[in-house]
Write a structure and sequence with these properties.
The protein is an alpha+beta fold and 123 residues long. It has one domain: 3-Layer(aba) Sandwich (Rossmann fold). The protein contains five helices and four strands; from the N terminus they run ααβαβαββα. Strands 1-2-3-4 form a four-stranded mixed sheet. Helix 1 runs antiparallel to helix 2.
Length: 123
């Protein structure tokens, strides 16, 4: 196992609380991430949105962290933020438009009956 792989595993553990839920980086975790950023690009992919990524990761990095090597990919990678020209910037955001959202919701509404599921009141 490389030291970068070992560091990544430590960070993964560091970013989970005792119940396995996502948690903000501690000072120790932020220092570890800073050391990793000094030698490698690092992507953090999460299920939250930018506010959570900022609150739990970006804002906790030490001042001397190589932020330009950090890739923040909230919403399970459908967005990408990079530190460019001294600020976090959106590189891309793959978002659904209103018609796509309506189609997805309709499919979820149809799915139970199409799969033969019955409502709780049916016998």
């Amino acid at each position: 196992m490389t030291s970068a792989t070992a560091t990544a595993k430590v960070l993964r553990h560091e970013m989970l609380d005792a119940c396995g839920k996502k948690a903000a980086l501690t000072a120790e975790g932020a220092a570890t991430l800073c050391r990793l950023l000094a030698v490698a690009d690092v992507a953090v992919i999460s299920g939250g949105d930018w506010r959570q990524s900022d609150r739990q990761v970006a804002s906790r990095l030490p001042v001397d962290a190589a932020r330009e090597r950090q890739w923040l990919m909230p919403t399970t990678g459908t967005k990408l933020y990079r530190f460019v020209d001294d600020a976090w910037r959106t590189i891309y955001a793959e978002l659904f438009d209103a018609a796509e959202k309506a189609s997805i919701r309709a499919a979820f509404d149809r799915a139970p009956s199409e799969l033969g599921a019955r409502s709780l009141g049916e016998s």
